[in-house]
Fold each of these.
Amino acid sequence: MTSSMKPVAVPDFLAAKKSGKKISMLTAYDYTWAGIVDAASIDSILVGDTLGMVVQGNKTTLPVTLDEMIYHGKMVVRATKRAMVVVDLPFLSYQVSPQQAVENAGRILKETGATAVKLEGGISQEKTIAALTNADIPVMAHVGFKPQSVRTTGVMGKIQRDEELLMQDALAAERSGAFAIVLEMISRPIAAKITEALSIPTIGIGSGPECDGQVLVLNDMLGLTDQFSPRFLKHYAQLRKAATEAIEAYNAEVKSGAYPADEHSRD
Ligand code: KIV
């Protein structure tokens, strides 16, 4: 995708797929980090329900509420000039009925100013994706490993290898109107086949380089989290280590009286 300052919109995703330009996406959950991600020309910011884990400290994404997603979505949108902001619909905010999904996704768009919502599912969410797109709410689907289904699948982060099911899920998402689709932890050759078969872009996480774009959890790629290192994750920085060293230095200087020095003090 080109890095002009014009805000990234849904048609830009489809144009990127057509022209073979890769799409970059990262999560962000607050004003400070969203501003940094946006200024770095990342195409899209996902206010992911992973905030339940990396911000709130839960073991899964299930406890996150719609109001919490809206709270974080507002902060991210306030900081963003160019990137397309996509906000996750949290667990049980869309599974009850298409009407529930339209009402809740509508609240997200109206109250945060985000461009789109993301939901987990393909075939199982066909009617819901169609209802949302009919209401002019752009939908990013999410298939493969689905963190909100962890209570039924039992395992976090397992590579998905059921080719027929994954292909049918992806095709269902496209058919019902999704403008893009996250492929999470799908074996590389299957993700490549899905990417080839779809006319909407695929955004991979742990699904190989053939996807049309990539998404990572910001806290993971910056090395802020320390308990998650699957093979697909690349650490682009070691911010936990850098922050710990800075905080320890501050602590030592406060205790020794070295901080504040003369230059930090007014006469
Ligand atoms: O919630 C999230 O951050 C996500 C990404 C891992 C794709 O869904």
Note: The beta strands are 23-27, 44-47, 84-88, 116-120, 139-144, 180-184, 202-205, 213-216.
Amino acid sequence: MHQRVAAINDLSGLGRCSLTADIAVLAAMGLECCPLPTAVLTTQTGYPDYRCVSFTGHMEDYRQHWLQLGVSFSGILSGYLATPEAADQVEAFLDTFQKPGTLYLCDPVLGDNGHVYRGFTDASIEAMGKLARRADILTPNLTEFCILTGTDMEPLFQLGRTDAQALFRALQEKALLFKGKKFIITGIPHSSLSGEHLVTNLVLDGEKAVPVTFPHLGGTYSGTGDLFAAILLGSQLQGRSLERGAQLAGELIGKAIRSSKAEGTPGNDGVNYEPYLSLLGKE
Ligand code: PXL
């Protein structure tokens, strides 16, 4: 059956992230992606001297026009929001289009590697927290999870080096602050008992905590979180389990990172995911 997803995200000319990733991934998964831009940028914000035009002032037009057309969405995905006001617009969009049976995935794009992205303020964090409370599924990376839950990151990194199971339990406990939400916390670095470097996407759903683990390839690449979020939402709409979605996303992103590493792609340019989109078709 034909399914529509509203993708509320920015359009960055370089960086293979946000809407660029959403449109490619959702189409490859057999879903219609309806882009609602939150901002238009020359590049993602990791490049020096990027230019950003906020699209916040146009978001209400989309809501009104789409409402007038009577469209509905099986899924709603929100990602990068350049201003707290853009988050208010997402709330208005949800008031109109979040119906019973609509799956809303909030990717709380706020930071990575222990740092908040450039341009974000306390107000941005608070606004993202409000959206997170309306989501069915959240896909923060470890940094974003810590920002949203007010958790100190360093002790968690320490724990990852010594006792990954204790780290996962600590994250599960913190996630109770967002009771009833399904979480996939992405990119959790840790070591195996034999000292291997690993990275886990931790699926938290009620009592369940399932680590989906891959070798840690290293490097930080633009857009991997956006790819993950779009694949996760797409795989839910395709009827796959959260664990299977997390596995599929991890496999595709792993292949794309390996390819980019082999070519020496700069992290800001994102990963070579394009050749692997065919992995995302229905099973
Ligand atoms: O991939 C997250 C992201 C999305 N959009 C913009 C960004 C970033 C991360 O830096 O700058 C504009």
Note: Residues 242-263 form the longest helix (22 residues).
Amino acid sequence: MSTIVQAQTQVVTDPKGFQLSPGNRRWILLSILFGFAALAFGVFQGFVQGLNYAGISLFTMLPGMKTYYEGLTAHGVLNAFIFTFAEANGWLSMMTARGLGRNLNSKLLALSFIFLLLGTIFAGIPIFAGKASVLYTFYPPLRAHWAFYFGIALAVVSTWIISAAQLLALSAWRKEHKGERIPLMAYVSIMTYIMWDISSLGAASEDLFLLLPWSLNLLPGSDPLLSRVLFWYTGHQIVYYWLLPAYVSWYICIPRLVGGKLFSDSLARIAFIMFVVLVPVGFHHQYTDPGIGNYYKIAVLFLTFAIAFPSLLTAFSIMYALEIGGRANGGKGILGWFWKLPWSNPAVSAQVLAMIAFLPGGITGIMNASYNMNLLTHNTTFVPGHFHLTLGSAVTLSYFGIAYWLIPYLTGKELVLKGLARWQPWIYFLGILIFARGEISGGILGMPRRTAIAIINYEPLPGWKLAGALTGIGGTIMFIACVLFFLVIFFTLILGKPKETQEDIPFCETYLGAAPSGWQLILDKLSYWVLLSFILIGLVYGPFLLTHLPPKLTSPPFQGF
Ligand code: HAS
């Protein structure tokens, strides 16, 4: 370690401090709390879905729920879209503001929040009325009420508004800081949104130009193949829009919270650039779809392995930061540092457990991406096993950890029920391990996903009962842990004592900082990476679109209401 040159830290513009404006603070806090409220509604549905696999059918017992698919749609939309959009909007607005040392435009933050709120209402009413049981992938020819598609569009626009606010702030910052490197905290936050801007174009155009007019009877039919291609163009990258806010915390805050340092500024930037450039991988969700040539499937197979690489870079960088922290706390030997991490701080334990869960989460992703393994896992519970270790753990547990310091930071109130907060991440982690063991093993034995298994009228295959029971038990434990989290946050909001001192956002230092000259400057030329991304998208999706367009609007709707 002594051979590493200490460079000047460029993580934030002004390390001495920064004050969020009341407007920024209000809309960021509202967005974060709104996201957790959506999660609370969503996990109720998730609890019932988990019990389904254990053979217990409670779908119709929840208010407004009539069928299994209504509940599953509500679970997916609330947890995968509304919760994640709201958290990312709030969290990365704040990190951009702190990184650049300038508040974002409060009116834009307010507008974004209103769009997300309206989007949730528009999409939520038909879901709970049984008029949009189309699941969160909303494949045609399943048809929902028009308000559902409209609501989804509003929710996506809310994210674009945040991106606009970030880019406006960056452009103003650049005028005042000519020739300076973009501070790392702002860089990773802005790159996350740039990646999402490019990625969201597929599902947004599907929603706005195909599904919404179709649901209003303005088009003669739907084009399921084109719709699925557009959806999955976005559908894989959305997982990185979920994940990268957690990475922002892992890169920027975790090294500081554990008493370590980030190894390299450039390595972190390269990881985020790879997520921006390697957008076109969605066809790996369509390995088994007819109508898509092998060229596309093989191209994305390699690109998918390539996009796992920045996560491996992240694993290296973060593990190194943890090790530095653990050793600074007195840890010795190969793994002794691990036990010396500040485990009593729930902001740390939740996020380190999230990382550990992400190890099997990532491995199962790579298994899914391997074409012949996918033939085994596709449409089985292996897939929800995978995504509860990623979205349900790496992301959600990270947001729990972030909230344990962020809510006190934004409200100026001390966290209450600290003992409960300490246990909560461990309980959730235990739950996810049991849940994922159930889903993954069941999936390998052919247990189908998206199936009301509790009421099937055929004999389950051998092994499904144990797998299903584990899924139900794990899901219940996860649900209990979520309730504990909501209790801590709720009581902090209403009973938390005013903090005596207001600390800054925890941000790291780097061993190898942002070089002021040399090849690294190209990392900040954001437009180059966007251009490269579009070239790659053109190469992968261009031939498909050229041969397929115009849309074949021939499929009549299937409308379950
Ligand atoms: Fe995935 C399906 C492939 C990542 C979410 N994925 C899904 C679906 C969701 C989802 C929701 O190729 C289902 C969609 C649906 O409804 O049909 N996925 C991948 C690959 C990755 C991947 C290759 N997925 C994610 C992430 C998600 C997510 C992240 C949410 C946030 N996924 C697939 C494929 C399918 C799929 C196929 C289609 C399946 C089908 O047929 O339907 C990779 O990006 C994963 C790379 C990750 C790693 C792990 C790095 C580990 C880190 C932690 C380090 C630990 C530390 C602590 C530092 C290589 C960074 C350690 C401390 C110690 C002491 C140990």
Note: The pocket of heme-as is lined by residues 137, 239, 242-243, 284-285, 304, 307-308, 311-312, 314-315, 318-319, 338, 355-356, 358-359, 362, 365-366, 368-369, 374, 377-378, 383, 386-387, 390-391, 395 (CB under 6 Å).
